[in-house]
Amino acid sequence: MTDSLFSKGVTEALNFSAVEHLCIGEPDWLRERREHAWALYEQTPMPTTKLEEWRYTDLRKKLQLDTLSLSQATVVPDNPTAWPKPLRKAMKEDRQASGHIVVIDGHVVHSDLEAELIAKGVILSSLHDAIEQHPNLVGNCLATEAVPPEEGKFAALNAALWSDGVFLYVPAEVQLNTPIRVTRWLSEAGVAQFGRVLILAENASRISYVDEILSDDFSEQTFASNAVEIIAKERAQVQYVSVQRLGRGAFYQSVQRTLAHGDATLDTLNVALGASVSRVDLNARLLGEGANSDMLGLYFGDEDQHFDFNTSQDHVSPHTASDLLYKGALDASSRAVFRGIIRVKPTAQRTNAYQTNRNLLLSGNARADSLPNLEIEADDVKCSHGATVGELDPDAKFYLMSRGLSRIQAERLVVLGFLGEVLSKLPLGGVVEKVTRVIEEKLSQH
Amino acid sequence: MSDTHILKIESLEAKVAAENLDILNGVNLEIGKGEVHAIMGPNGSGKSTLAKILAGHPGYEHTAGEVLFKGQNLLELDPDERSRAGIFLAFQYPVEIPGVSIANFLRTALQAHLTEEEELDIFEFSDMLTERMSMLEMDISFAERHVNDGFSGGEKKRNEILQMAVLKPTLAVMDETDSGLDIDALKIVSNGVNKLTEEDPEMSILLITHYQRLLNYITPDFVHVMVDGRLVRSGGPEIALELEKDGYKNWKNSELVSLSNEPDIPKTA
Asked: Which chain B positions have a beta carbon within 8 Å of A404's beta carbon?
């Protein structure tokens, strides 16, 4: 592929006719949106390391766009015995849930929701079904307000080529006591997959949503793209958790935006454990007075894994609060990049905004770059940011060993304790245990 | 007594690993089963270095002499092996381990003390921990707090005693356990130690302290004075009282003395 073609990102598989193919049978408004998104995609140059936001992730080296094909997978039956074992295992650990969605190779193959919640008007379905059955609800929000194609190259690509996704709608005052669980499985190597999530929580509703994406290792680079749009209306309480456990060979790319209206609470947790390259762009917008967002992140790298988090906290209204805590441990020659910005508009007086990124290096070859930033235009605010990159404290190791723990046990306890702080802040049933177990597995190879 | 000694230090010399600075210059000491020894000395005399050398701190290096623990060459063991062999060091400055609960820490530690075939029963462990904490008059909620994270000085030292109570060592080395404690905290901590020695009269203790006041609460069988990396005098508790009265100044550069009525206490050379 020549430089200019890479810059455009147009390949034998990713092109306008692929977009047209997806539009077959879809409503006109959606076709227009896809075509518009594709036009933007072609016009937007591929980000290079000359851009501050991509300085440490060189797509020319990390992403082989021209080798990717589009998924050919057929729909797997809605029958767990037909599903891959690791997927079933992951679901088994999802103890309590108000509803489930299972996505295999881009197709939603299963969805269920408690009857009582259906009766109350809660909608949990594939995006395609939602577009057919609730065109207005979906049409108003999909790729418009939260993650429009104008957001960037990958947001445009996803908006043009998404194959399916999840739609969750919670009417006003309806409160779910247990999470919605979404489990996605990818099996095709060498493909590009585009999924979307749209969550709409009406006034004073309450939900938690746990999304887990996983796969085996891939023999060829596989591109998993995800666009997440979350809208919390007034006084709504939303918790969003993403657990990324893709196999090696995966390039995971996720653009997420959360919109918190007046007095809404919209918390997120991004857990990155898998994939060879993982890039997450998260933008939290505190739109309404009194809105609040806790933003949590956790990552554990080994081998040559590369994690890149690009976050922003946008305070637009007064009395808003955001608190970001991203922590990661890096072993072998893995690498993490954290770049975060707090922006406080002049209209957002009496805002509290905090941002912390902490990295623990377990190997001399591991590397972490942390770039916190502030852009404050209001004068009556409390903001702070901090970043640390440190090694395992030898005193802590000696202390634990002096109580009989082996060197490995001591390191494991320190690392789990370090990362556990993040999980303890959003202790959704099952997630803490699952993530802890995966980290322990990774540590056992340390 | 010497037949039943559990710790025997002979002509031990040691230095800070990163520097060429000798700190211990020939320490001789024997500790028998169930004995409580106190080492007193001015700042910089090498007391804490001795404690760290016994526990295997990687920052210190032994250069001569030997240490036998229950007849085993202690200095060739890793810190965790020493712990499993029965040595416990109560730290002067206990380390904070954020995110790790005391209960989880102690469970992992106790499991490490078992053989590979033995599995710690979590219910038995929980009962045992509750019992240990109530013996030390600690609130059970303490076990859910993260190890030393944000603890006051007194809480850190109590946590050391709790670990000692759970791990039940053969020999506990207490490095300046009294430092930074007010009188109430000192009473609580020494009360805990006394309960443990009452419970297990065979447990030996090596107290390392700058001040005599700790010895008002934990009565030693033997007191040693360390100056310039050597034990310059050994005797009974009365030595501590002398020090209280006269301070260490008389011991600096003085000739080495040992009490003739204590023949089993090794003479320092």
From this structure: 80, 83-84, 109-110, 112-113, 167
Contact of B166 with chain A, judged by CB distance below 8 Å, is answered with no
* A413, part of any domain: no
Confirm whether A397 is domain-assigned.
Answer: no
In a domain, residue A193? The reply is yes
Give the whole-angstrom CA distance, residue A147 versus residue A230. 9
CB atoms within 10 A of CB B3: 6
Interface check A387 vs B, CB under 8 A: no
Among A213-227, A432-446, B116-130, the least confident range: A432-446
> What pLDDT does residue B260 have?
35
Would you state the CATH architecture of domain B2-94+170-246? 3-Layer(aba) Sandwich (3.40)
Distance from CA of A417 to the nearest CA of B (A): 4
User: What global pTM score does this model have?
Assistant: 0.87
In this structure, is residue A318 part of a structural domain? no
Helix (H) or strand (E) holding A440: helix A431-444
State how far Cα B208 lies from the chain centre.
7
Q: Does A396 touch chain B (CB under 8 A)?
A: yes
Tokens read off for A151: 């957001």
Q: What is the mean pLDDT of residues B209-227?
A: 92
Q: Which residue of B has its CA nearest to A407?
A: B80
Query: Which residue in the set B58, B80, B146 is minimally distant from A405, CB to CB?
Result: B80
CA torsion sign, B107 to B108 to B114 to B119?
A: positive
Task: Name the least confident of B49-53, B77-81, B135-139.
Answer: B135-139
Query: If contacts are CB pairs under 8 Å, which of residues 32-61 in chain B contact chain A?
Result: 55-58
Domain that holds residue A256: 3-287
Structural tokens at position A278: 């993982």
Would you call A399 and B82 a contact, using CB atoms and an 8 Å cutoff? no
pLDDT at A346 over 50: yes
pLDDT tens string A153-212: 999 999 999 999 999 999 999 999 999 999 999 999 999 999 999 999 999 999 999 999
B57: confidence class by pLDDT, cuts 50, 70, 90? very high
What is the torsion angle, in degrees rounded to the nearest 10, for the CA atoms of residue B45, residue B47, residue B50 and residue B52?
Answer: -120
What are the residue boundaries of the structural domains of chain B, listed by start? Answer: 2-94+170-246, 95-150
Tell me what ipTM this predicted complex has: 0.91
Confidence class for position B269, pLDDT limits 50, 70, 90: very low
DSSP A246-269: PPTTEEEEEEEEEEE-TT-EEEEE
pLDDT reported for residue B18: 86
Q: How many domains does chain A have?
A: 1
Taking an 8 Å cut-off on Cβ atoms, the answer to whether B112 and A409 are in contact is yes
